[in-house]
């Protein structure tokens, strides 16, 4: 039997944070969990868009959904969001991201935009929220990666430097970093005897606003206007792309990765995803973990 979001169990009484939950895959992830009874917070860069998305989800039966500002490209914003979170947190979905800006760009803290947003921002957020996660009875962190991770390699440790910047390679390294982080987080939890489950998912190839975002390809004139029309014709929907994430939230095992199963994992029913040899490299994962602590100043603590 194929698993779908219709098989989600009740999430009544559980709290969930979805980064980038105001659009695309994050929107459908948050809405489905809200309909399943969870109290959902959309952590997004644009609070107006977040409030509009939360209202739309509530109107569609999602129940308790709210929005809060979080800019993953600004470690100060990450700290503010985490400091304001005072209750136990059951599920953190590290979903937000930026894809292939054509020219080199930096975060507020001077990191290359894709690595800084997709990985370092989520690393810092997870680390700062870890005490709240460990207060929950069965905490879970799901990090959304991409099949693009296959093009990443050990150069992820160089931090996507300005010299020789290549948008696709930088994106691939940021998505490889997502997997290395998710699996090392599980190893760290196991080492400290914590009940936390950390796993990953990837959406296949879906029609989302990653392409049209002004931080990515949408900065090219004409892309933001034409891309949505083309994407809807050739790619699976964002709702379909959210299915692997929802499976990882509901049923994915520790250090697992869920993805579509058809057409080189670009679409189709959910199941175990393939991983590159770099994604399975425990030494590389620990090196990236230590580097991420050094760059962000955030060291996850397991009290």
TrEMBL record:
The lineage of its organism: Bacteria, Bacillati, Actinomycetota, Actinomycetes, Propionibacteriales. Keywords: Oxidoreductase. The keyword Oxidoreductase applies. This is SDR family NAD(P)-dependent oxidoreductase. It holds the Pfam family adh_short. GO terms for molecular function: oxidoreductase activity.
């Amino acid at each position: 039997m194929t698993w779908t979001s219709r098989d989600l169990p009740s999430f009544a009484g559980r709290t969930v944070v979805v980064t980038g939950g105001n659009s695309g895959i994050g929107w459908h992830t948050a809405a489905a969990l809200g309909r399943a009874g969870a109290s959902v917070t959309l952590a997004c860069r644009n609070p107006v868009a977040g409030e509009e998305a939360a209202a739309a989800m509530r109107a569609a039966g999602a129940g308790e959904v709210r929005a809060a500002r979080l800019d993953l490209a600004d470690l100060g914003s990450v700290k503010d969001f985490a400091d304001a979170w005072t209750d136990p947190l059951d599920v953190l979905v590290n979903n937000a991201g930026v894809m292939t800006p054509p020219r080199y760009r930096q975060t507020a803290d001077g990191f290359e935009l894709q690595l800084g947003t997709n990985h370092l921002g989520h690393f810092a957020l997870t680390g700062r929220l870890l005490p709240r996660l460990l207060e929950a009875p069965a905490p879970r962190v799901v990090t959304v990666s991409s099949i693009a991770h296959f093009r990443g390699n050990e150069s992820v440790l160089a931090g996507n430097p300005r010299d020789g910047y290549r948008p696709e390679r930088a994106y691939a390294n940021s998505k490889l970093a997502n997997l290395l982080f998710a699996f090392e987080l599980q190893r760290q939890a196991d080492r400290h005897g914590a009940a936390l489950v950390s796993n990953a998912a990837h959406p296949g190839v879906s029609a989302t606003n990653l392409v049209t975002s002004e931080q990515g390809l949408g900065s090219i004139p004409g892309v933001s206007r034409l891309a949505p029309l083309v994407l809807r014709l050739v790619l699976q929907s964002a709702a379909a792309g959210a299915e692997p994430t929802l499976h990882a939230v509901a049923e994915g095992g520790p250090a697992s990765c869920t993805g579509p199963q058809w057409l080189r994992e670009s679409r189709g029913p959910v199941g175990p995803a393939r991983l590159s040899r770099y994604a399975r490299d425990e030494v590389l994962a620990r090196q990236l973990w230590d580097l991420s602590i050094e760059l962000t100043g955030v060291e996850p603590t397991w009290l």
